[in-house]
């Protein structure tokens, strides 16, 4: 029965007990204590179920908001990581591009090196072959000249008649081959001795040349050593002045140098210890600094979380305040009840006074009838109101749903207006104009498209500027490296030139002077050799002609037999005087001076290379470096500006995407509000079809008034019957 009757009647158990089948003694429950009255109304209107549902909805919304905030923070963190990843990928691409450039440069340089090495090898082979051919040609030319000279001597010479009989001459002639063989053996022995002597002389000359070279090298090393010692002393004195170390003014000995070096080492260890201590302090301070940064970041994150939590709590408090306001509005009937109770009390007092004044009146029956009639009318009116209250109670669900829908419309409207205000503010900040609320999504999409196009263009410009910056940096590095290489090569050439001049046989300050002097010495040796060879040939011809024709070719005089011996003695003396110049020694001297001249010519090539480096290549490289350094600030500024602009555009795009999401939220809220308004209209239509425009509170107030009047009439009747 307890479950079937409420189901058949279509009302709740609380309505059956407190409204429909309420006993007369319990019909005064609307005048009960507030707590009992609240419980009764909660049971009738099933407010507990809706309260639990609302609490469940609030808890669910709170959880969803917290999850949304966490997801937003996670999205922000992921976006930061993605930006960092994009930067790293950009750096990796730049590094790979630079590696590719370096590899291509390496391959090109390697090919050039291999080609030059092959050319050098071929040139060396050709040079060796040319040297061999040149020596062979030189020997053949000498042999040819000697053969031609012998032929000329044979042509111009006169044959002398040998003394003796024919038998003696025939005997000599028969034995002449033996004589020639013996002389040939003697000649071979003498030539071997001569060859041995020449080899000894050549070895001694080479040894002499080596010793001279060694002497020059050792002299240069000694001079360089003295220079280094002097530079070391100057450096020691400068270091002593710098680090307050006493250094003697006289020449430093080894002990003083060792002592100074030990002091410098102690000072270095001290500075190293101080540096390590400073480095440790710096590391510790850096760790403290980063720890503070992390702590501040954590605190900032905690404050953000706390701010978000407080914001959520503020929203919850606002919702609670609105609920409390609704409850206060609902409890306004209590004030009306209190006022009616006070009026009833005043009325009862007035009735008591009136009854006291009319106690002795004669119209008692009429008054009793009048009171009964009033009570009957009030009972009928109360029955009508109870029936109307029952109908309204059956519509309690619809009315509660109507209140919820209206509250939902109000909350969503407030949220939509707040979101629209935020969007308008951010849109004005980004686009410098107010958006049209009716076409906010289209304007945001248009703004996003324009920002994306601007970002793409800026990204291309930034990439080009970055590439130009990298090219400038590469050009600066290459130019500085080339300048360093050229300067180092210039110093090396200068040292080689000075070393070659010091080690050479000629004392000269410049390469041109050394070449001129070496050329003069070589020409002098050649002239001496030519003079020696020519004089020997002339004197030999004069001697032969004098013997054969008895004529002196020098003065064209005839010679007598007694003058011939003196003539021969005089010519031999002249030949001996002219042959004091040793041909081998002259050849060796010519070889030495030719070698010196070749060395000086190589030094001349090095000097030309150094002059070209100093006068042409270095100024051009320095001008190129100055041009690159002059263009670098503009390129760097442009690259930084474009990079900052690109970052700003990315932030604007992210903000516009947020605005687009918020605009989507507004559209969703608009659809939900329209849907809820439609539902509210349907509920209001259903309620208006009942024919009653009163609310439960209005009916309850009228019931309270009727009950109060019935009580007053009942008391009047009781007073009349006393």
Automatic annotation (TrEMBL):
Database matches in Gene3D superfamilies: 1.10.287.1490, P-loop containing nucleotide triphosphate hydrolases (3.40.50.300)
Sorted UniProt keywords: Coiled coil
GO MF: double-stranded telomeric DNA binding; G-quadruplex DNA binding; single-stranded telomeric DNA binding
GO cellular component, as recorded: condensed nuclear chromosome; Mre11 complex
Domain of life (superkingdom): Eukaryota
Coiled-coil segments on the chain, per record: 78-214, 268-395, 476-528, 590-716
GO biological process, one term: telomere maintenance via telomerase
Protein name per Swiss-Prot or TrEMBL: Uncharacterized protein
